């Protein structure tokens, strides 16, 4: 159930099967991302893969002394490129791997193009998704829906990605979906269709309890992606943005050239692997330790290298030292930038109010706090807008709802129209009317007691008190208490036992906060393994883009000024 | 960086629950609380404390993952089993699904290629025919005749326009025939094939026949074989002078095909420099991969002061390996600079390739060369040897200590056992129902003291050494660090072993528990039987005395009913394994020196316990002419004079009672769970075991002194399973249970990896049982 490992194994197998000799890896845009998530350059170099080329690159030289490993998505363009390639082969021999099911006719046309018999292998290796963490995958699709319905192209891509995931993990699951979402139902049906059609592929060793695929829709919980995060991975994504493990630091003031873009990968960065789920305070102290460690190991100029023994020790520690110096400067820079942003944007205070909006039900205090923050000049328009969004989502139907007043405040603060429109768009996207379940007020006795106890105890950390709605859903699922009238099964058969292997997919994107939740569930629930996926992994910014892309026009009181853009889309 | 200078900025987590004041750490929070709110509700305070502790604990668990071997028994367990598993630790998975289209692909390609190859072959055969004769010395008319015979020419009338360019043929624009396919084209569209070119193609076809079996074409077999068919062309190669008329007319299509063919031939023959260099480079790397581990082994051993390898040999090897590294460096540099001075500079991709190769070679060298530890100089080596000697000395002392300790413990136990035995005797004679008292007395004895004594000194030692290592590291004495680490590892191994032992002991105790229960049941039956027994009291006394000799025999039959092996083999086997086990417990302990003491301390106390077992086996072996059965009636005297071999065998049980290391543990991993073999060793079947018969067996057994043989069969330890949840056990046992569970998990993992699926099943079963027991216990303690 480790998705990183699953993809890595595929790539390793490809390289292994091609035998010794210099190799070139021929990929398309998407597979480049897929491979780069699981293999680092130096790692793959050691396997004699020296060149990485895009199949669509025209500037490739004939190098008959190289073997080509082609890892491509089975798209029409790729097949065409490959046909051209095979007609005039640039490399001595081709090992072709498609990341998903390819049609027989495509195979035929490829075969007919291979007049020089350079193809030695044609296989389907189902690494058709971005493996972010062992339990988290993404499809890097932003804007998967038009209104409430799928963009057809994205639906087919999502179906492919999800079925590839199932195949790579060798799971033939039962499917449940969120009834309130049409998109979830549609995706569930598409996945089922593929499973039925490719039934031969999905014949795996039966497990006692069949795996379960749960398909959810982001609309059900629009709160989570709007919150500021305080665990390392989530925070970096929220404040700096993680794109295929890469972080763009070019906007950081005074950044050195080689740190413009850094890679944060848990696979080969021990510090990151150990700290990605810790909160910012802990990271602070850990990075301090890392620095101290580094300073200890760092040779103190020449004077300490006097004796030969010293030099020897230095040389022996050198590779480690070098690696460490890279890690140190990277994390110091990242954490430093985070900390700068936190104080610059007054995020501690903002986050506190966000959490209050998300977790508590005290309207007047919340309103007061939001108002107070809107007056604060340090609070950016982005954060101001998101506070109002949270307020709007939570107190949408509250009797003394004072959203118009807050909107006024936003306008007075000088928040751009784009953000002000987004407030109503977000409510349209994930408001009460759309939600299949209640985000804010607990329904059953257990939840009520829990909240009561929470209030009694006080919260451990005000900034991380929010639990994504997904936690509750999964908790119920694990305990076999997830209601079938809200999350029905697709097809007649139902699961009698408690599920063990669970794949959750969120249409409209997952978040790193949810990834952390799943990580913790995995750690604390024996016998249960959960993998989380989404059309993408959101931070607030990308989530707002997603909302914008879905083109839901505002229906709120301000609807007089419907964004012309979304209107024209219809 | 700001976060480092100003931690207050980031430590947002410690808010006073009463005044919501933000404090920097939980210590500060605590003191703040004590100062400000000390008068207020106490409960809240307690809550903070527990909260703080929780946070601390969580933090600890997250921050330091290593270095807590001592706690791993409890903490590590929590994260492993009560909790699920960190996704990073999910068990290894197989390769995902794959589907091959190769056969389909080949089928389609073959259909296509056959056509293509036939075309090429046809052309080449014709070309050969066209060049087969001496063109220069033949009249053109004759040439034309021959040409026409090779391929039928298309009729001029049929082709009014040039098929390639569409121009009308006329007197000016004359028709030309392709000599290879017979088609017609105009002069503009006509191509010419020179004789050398033709020669190259035809001779290459011939060559390919001879070369295509050579291995140079590695996995590219597709390539060679089919081309081979082209080479069916018979050979002709005439050396020709070039003349004006030496060219063969042909159409563009045929020429294209031939050019493609030529390209293929060229590529096949041509090996670029980079490939040659690269192959050399790879060879060197392979050599390093072979030699480096060997050297590292040598160097490690030498640095540890061992004398297994000679210093000269090692330094020779070092020089050799270093030379290879230099070669790798030189080769990769050469690759890097290939073609840089050529006039048309190489394609950027070529340069990139060269850079990458160089980079990977550098990485390789960096990683491996720097891992190549240095050798000690001669003087250092001598010093090291001395140091090692001291180390050994120290170890020996340590071992002796351990031995002494265990002896002491044993002594204690013995005296206890003795009293117990005496007590048991009384009870058994009385036949009174006093099993409960025994249970009370027994458990703590076998459990707590042993454990705490066992673990403490070792752990201390481990801690000491860890701190030594730290000091040595700080002082930069790497050699010393290494030896210390070696030492540490040994200690840790030992510690692990002890943990296993404890686990084994646990299962033993479970068996014991069950015995007791069973006994209680049997008591009822026994009353009846006791009456009859009165009559045989004298005889039973006799049995008791006899038991003295059974105890020596007993190890031979430790595993009755397991395998029909000969007793002698068993005796040897056991003797051996028990010695081994003691050695394992205290590495190179001079176990022989200890033997007498144990032998003599063991039997008197234990004699009775073994009684039933020996009875079983004897009963079992009655038919198979048990050699020891003869001894059985041979009066008490035989028992008194413990013959040397017998004494040695009795060492086995005494060791196991010491809870050292179960000799059978090695034989079957899965047995650890509820290791049935530990049961016989366990002192559990206390002195009363002889009366400890199974209820339903009872009626059948004749009430004669010989009946213990019969009865004992039902106490066959192999029939007891350890799953019985021993209720109301001490908390220590729970810890042991946890360890046990951990062990089993490890075994399951191991078994899974090796693909022993049946074993996995058994183990999982065991695991489940253990977990159930644990849960039951938990409920009990709550």
UniProtKB/TrEMBL annotation, chain A:
Membrane topology, from the record: Peripheral membrane protein
Example GO BP: protein transport
The keyword rRNA processing is annotated on this UniProt entry: no
Localization of this protein: Endosome membrane; Golgi apparatus membrane
Main location: membrane
GO cellular component, one term: endosome membrane
One Pfam family recorded for the sequence: Sec1
Keywords, alphabetical: Endosome, Golgi apparatus, Membrane, Phosphoprotein, Protein transport, Transport
Lineage: superkingdom: Eukaryota
Annotated function: May play a role in vesicle-mediated protein trafficking from the Golgi stack through the trans-Golgi network.
Family, as annotated: Belongs to the STXBP/unc-18/SEC1 family.
Protein name: Vacuolar protein sorting-associated protein 45
Organism: Neomonachus schauinslandi (Hawaiian monk seal)
High-level lineage: Eukaryota, Metazoa, Chordata, Craniata, Vertebrata
Automatic annotation (TrEMBL), chain B:
Bias kind Low complexity: ranges: 221-238
Acidic residues bias locations: 720-734
Keywords: Coiled coil, Metal-binding, Zinc, Zinc-finger
Polar residues bias locations: 206-220, 634-644
Gene Ontology molecular function, alphabetical: zinc ion binding
Transmembrane segments: none
Ranges in coiled-coil conformation: 474-524
Domain (FYVE-type) ranges: 156-259
Residue span of region Disordered: 206-238, 627-651, 663-734
Record's protein name: Rabenosyn-5
Organism: Neomonachus schauinslandi
Name of the encoding gene: RBSN
